[in-house]
Specification:
Length: 295
């Protein structure tokens, strides 16, 4: 198996969540119409929806080299100097769940931006229904290009009036890994929040260092939120990361939700666990406030 099609630990955790009955889920047609991915399985009927009242929100194009990267943004209406929070998506592209999370952050006072950094492959990941078709696209994203895309996103947010001196990043699943990687890269970052982000990578020449290997290089405090029942990211690995950060005297905190599987915050999926998700969101908000991102 080549690294392009490797089932990384985030994907393993995603695909091994206990199956649920089809009751309480939308039809595939309704899910697609609502803007949700089908690659993660059936979409729950009682998803969280955040409106745009009091917000400015919409699609944007961010210049990256000679190309334009699609993005979705949301921020408080009329607030020119809102803190900037980058939203790092899962492997499913810029679908409705990620857009909704962006609006939730805007309701907390942030100018939140979710960049679609897989755009160069010319495939709309939100429309792909088989996870195996996603892997060659997302696993072939070089870290160097990813970090450059995130830097361009920050610069764009600043050009739109966002306050990049109060910069945060939040990510889910593969985006959780992105949080760790960006925290080791960006000297401008104030804080990161990683929801069940992979800590140890398979061998991939495009990903020179895993988050665990980058522990000594962390430049910003990161909060790691993990599920004790995640079949892809064992608790022992989380403890290993915690120890590596402590050894390097880096500021980080972890919360493990014992019964929660991978994807416990994803309210559109069967993996959603309401109590863990709500508590984790409160922890994320408190972390950003503690480290000067949110006021």
């Amino acid at each position: 198996m080549s690294f392009e099609t490797t089932m990384t630990s985030d994907v393993v955790g995603l695909t091994k969540v206990a199956p649920l009955s089809r009751r309480g889920f939308m039809s595939a047609t309704a899910a697609v119409a609502a803007g949700y991915t089908l690659a993660a399985g059936p979409v729950r009927a009682d998803i969280i929806t955040t409106d745009t009242s009091g917000l400015q929100a919409g699609d944007a194009k961010i210049k990256v080299g000679s190309e334009e990267m699609p993005a979705y943004f949301a921020g408080p209406a009329g607030n020119a100097k809102a803190p900037v929070v980058i939203v790092a998506m899962e492997i499913f592209g810029l679908h409705e769940y990620i857009r909704d999370v962006t609006r939730r952050l805007a309701k907390l006072g942030a100018f939140a931006v979710a960049p679609d950094y897989y755009f160069r492959k010319g495939i709309d990941l939100t429309k792909v229904t088989d996870i195996k078709e996603l892997l060659p696209v997302v696993n072939a994203k070089p870290d160097a290009e990813l970090l450059s895309d995130l830097d361009a996103t920050v610069a764009w947010a600043g050009s739109q009036g966002g306050d990049t001196t109060k910069l945060g990043i939040i990510g889910f699943c593969r985006g959780g890994r992105t949080v760790w990687e960006y925290a080791a890269h960006s000297g401008a970052l104030k804080a990161g929040v990683a929801f069940y982000g992979t800590l140890v990578d398979p061998a991939n020449p495009l990903w020179p260092k895993s988050p665990l290997q980058l522990a000594p290089e962390m430049k910003a405090p990161v909060l790691g939120l993990y599920g004790g029942a995640d079949t892809g990211i064992p608790v022992a690995q989380v403890e290993q990361m915690k120890a590596a950060l402590e050894q390097s005297k880096k500021t980080a905190d972890f919360k493990i939700y014992p019964e929660a599987p991978h994807g416990f915050h994803a309210d559109y999926r069967g993996s959603y666990r309401k109590d863990a998700a709500e508590d984790a969101w409160k922890q994320a908000e408190a972390w950003f406030k503690k480290h000067g991102v949110l006021s």
